[in-house]
Amino acid sequence: MKDINVGLIGYKFMGKAHSNAFAMLPMFFDTQDRIVRKVICGRDQNMVSKAAVKFGFSESMTSWEELVKRDDIHVIDITAPSNFHKEPAIEAVENKKHVFCEKPLALNYKDAFMMYNAAKKAEVKNQIGFNYRFVPAIVLARKMIEQNKLGRIYHFRGAFLQDWIMDPDFPKVWRLDKSVAGSGALGDLGAHVIDLARYLVADINSVCAMAETFIKKRPAVQEMTGLSASKKDINAKMEKVDVDDAAIFMIKFTNGALGTIETTRFAGGHKNDMFFEINGEKGSIRFYFERMNELLYYNAEDEEGYMGFRLIQASEGIHPYMQSWWPAGHVIGYENTFVHEFYEFFQSISLGHNAKPDFYDGMKCCQVLDAVELSIKENCWVSVDSIK
Ligand SMILES: NC(=O)c1ccc[n+]([C@@H]2O[C@H](COP(=O)([O-])OP(=O)(O)OC[C@H]3O[C@@H](n4cnc5c(N)ncnc54)[C@H](O)[C@@H]3O)[C@@H](O)[C@H]2O)c1
Questions:
Q1: In Å, how far are 8, 108, 150, 310, 314 from 295, measured between CA atoms?
Q2: CA of 325 to the centre of ligand 1 (A)
Q3: Which pLDDT band holds residue 230 (cuts at 50, 70, 90)?
Q4: pTM score
Q5: Which CATH number is 3-131 given?
Q6: Where, residue-wise, is CATH 3.40.50.720 in the chain?
Q7: Which pLDDT band holds residue 221 (cuts at 50, 70, 90)?
Q8: pLDDT at position 236
Q9: How would CATH label the architecture of 136-291+293-332?
């Protein structure tokens, strides 16, 4: 057993989710090597040293440039906003570090393509944080599709609905700034659904989209973290919001299936409501993230008179990843998805295979996101391959 030393960049929402996963992983899964929370990196020394203590890292530092060059660091984990993925990822792979990067991979397809190429050239392991791929019920859905339980797939209907910025006084946090986030609900939430559509159905051929920014000006942000921020300062100046509040698009898949994806931060009452339904010739499946241990399955070959969606509790030992957790029916949560994704990532480093989803998947997702944005701008169908 050898040590895999991690250097983590960023220490708020995702920094905490990843650190928690590093701590939980060896308690529940047998990993080949030891995961060591070595260095945590942020811009403010006082804050980052507090985060190091809280998240169990032995050191903290403020220079990511030095971090990615350190000989005693094997993995760089990037949990900064999207405008700060490309630079550290490319520097890290060029210094032969394995890299885990949060989604979306980059601000646009061009940058994502550079990151993918740099990682490929360096021959290091790379993975992107599409953690919903590691929900046991979703892995089960993929298995059922591979076993041809749905037959030919006709439809994918996906949505990611939130409501945390509906108050017009909610400030312009980084997620509402195009130069930092790339896009709004589209890149933040839509990236996950696009990835699931690619994972479960097929690659996306073309898209036709519309989007809206309902609140066009917001007070400047004073203090923020993750999805929360301090409310309006009476003296705060108003700033233009340059990302979408909601985006909706139609999809043609390469295998002939049709789809729709709806992403919004203005769906009152929906907190982190990611759902999808897939309809095939032999059956359908339906999934709601807020009930993430369950998968609904309709089998068109069931006996007449008894047909209907059945509820599968995907929390038994035979279900993906569940053997490592609790007895059947003792359900798991959001944070466990990160444990699963990092289990796959660290095993890929130890055993030498490639982890999925990787920078290739991150790049393909960015290509779809760019196609959606072009479709919104030009008001027409856009072929994903036309994005270069
Ligand atoms: N997989 C998921 O479910 C999921 C959920 C939320 C966020 N994300 C992604 O994770 C990333 C971070 O989001 P978050 O919610 O954790 O944001 P956050 O605002 O909570 O944390 C961002 C962290 O990055 C640091 N940071 C910002 N700019 C930096 C820079 N230039 N140098 C060093 N550190 C810097 C901040 O200080 C902070 O610690 C984004 O790409 C986001 O899309 C993924």
A1: 34, 33, 14, 8, 7
A2: 28
A3: low
A4: 0.97
A5: 3.40.50.720
A6: 3-131
A7: confident
A8: 79
A9: 2-Layer Sandwich (3.30)
